[in-house]
């Protein structure tokens, strides 16, 4: 209880959800808190829409062992899950691409760094992201303080076509205003080309409307995620 007599709300949880049976789906990040999801059903409905599942999501599983998650309280901050309908859990190595063991953990099992699987065409979907020289940016949606940033994998070895990047951003951002026409830094300055993108930085996808300067980072990215990567524990 707080000094004012009100119970403090549980901290938000950041989780990543994959599609059952789809080894190439890069995963969708969700911020789970009481303000956004009052019930587990509401969370399932949001997952269904966000990952564009062919059928309504009815079950959430852990990615390695297929353990079923029954309620919001069972979700763990910084962990990854697999969304399924009524079909059985399909055991795949969902975290195969871009994953590496955490340095300094010795023989500890199940603790790893997670890097999102490459989805941008210049990185491709075969081989490891390290072999392809991929790096990752995170992108917010202009004026949207409800949706967390999505990962944008890019290749260091393949020349970047800016029009192709904007097309990819349009598909991933799904802005209400339509196609993404520009990419901005958090201070609102426009990025002019792929060579200006910095590994690990945050950007904002903007349509034909003006850039909306909002506290994207402060409200949508937990303060304890300074390393800008997620822990995987299963």
Radius of gyration: 18 Å
List low-pLDDT spans: 97-132, 224-234
How many H/I helical runs? 4
What is the annotated CATH architecture of the domain at 134-220? Roll
Average pLDDT, rounded to a whole number, is: 76
Walk across the major sheet and give the strand order. 2-1-5-3-4
Straight-line distance between termini: 32 Å
Indicate the overall shape.
Answer: globular
Attribute tags:
Doublecortin_dom, disordered C terminus, 4 helices, Ubiquitin-like (UB roll), alpha+beta, 234 residues, five-stranded mixed β-sheet
Give a structural overview.
Residues 13-95, 139-217 form the Doublecortin domain. Keywords: Repeat. This is DCD2B protein. A hairpin with a 6-residue loop joins strand 3 (59-61) and strand 4. The chain has helices at 40-50, 129-132, 162-173, 216-220; strands spanning 13-19, 28-32, 59-61, 68-69, 80-84, 100-101, 112-114, 134-141, 150-155, 182-185, 202-206, 230-232. Among the domains are: 13-84, Doublecortin domain (Ubiquitin-like (UB roll), Roll); 134-220, Doublecortin domain (Ubiquitin-like (UB roll)). The chain contains four helices and twelve strands. The protein is globular, with a radius of gyration of 18 Å. A five-stranded mixed beta sheet has the order 2-1-5-3-4, with helices on one face. A four-stranded mixed beta sheet has the order 9-8-11-10. A three-stranded antiparallel beta sheet has the order 6-7-12, with no helix packed on it. It starts with 12 loop residues before the first strand and ends with a strand. 14% of the residues lie in helices and 23% in strands. It has 234 residues and is α+β, with helices and mostly antiparallel strands.
């Amino acid at each position: 209880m707080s000094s004012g007599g009100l119970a403090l709300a549980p901290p938000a949880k950041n989780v990543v959800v994959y599609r059952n049976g789809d080894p190439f789906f890069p995963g969708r990040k969700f911020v789970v808190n009481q303000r956004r999801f009052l019930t587990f059903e509401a969370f399932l409905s949001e997952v269904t829409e966000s990952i564009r599942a062919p059928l309504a999501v009815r079950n959430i599983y852990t990615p390695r062992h297929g353990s079923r998650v029954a309620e919001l309280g069972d979700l763990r901050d910084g962990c990854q899950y697999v969304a399924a309908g009524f079909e059985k859990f399909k055991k795949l190595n969902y975290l195969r691409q871009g994953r590496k063991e955490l340095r300094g953990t010795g023989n500890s099992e199940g603790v790893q760094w997670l890097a999102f699987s490459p989805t941008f065409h210049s990185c491709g979907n075969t081989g490891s992201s390290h072999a392809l020289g991929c790096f990752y940016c995170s992108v917010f949606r202009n004026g949207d303080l409800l949706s967390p940033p999505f990962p944008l994998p890019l290749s260091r070895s393949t020349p970047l076509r800016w029009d192709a990047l904007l097309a990819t951003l349009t598909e991933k951002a799904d802005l209400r205003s339509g196609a993404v026409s520009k990419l901005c830094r958090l201070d609102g300055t426009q990025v002019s080309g792929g060579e200006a993108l910095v590994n690990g930085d945050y950007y904002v996808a903007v349509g034909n409307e003006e850039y909306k300067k909002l506290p994207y980072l402060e409200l949508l990215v937990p303060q304890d995620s300074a390393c800008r990567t997620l822990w995987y524990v299963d």
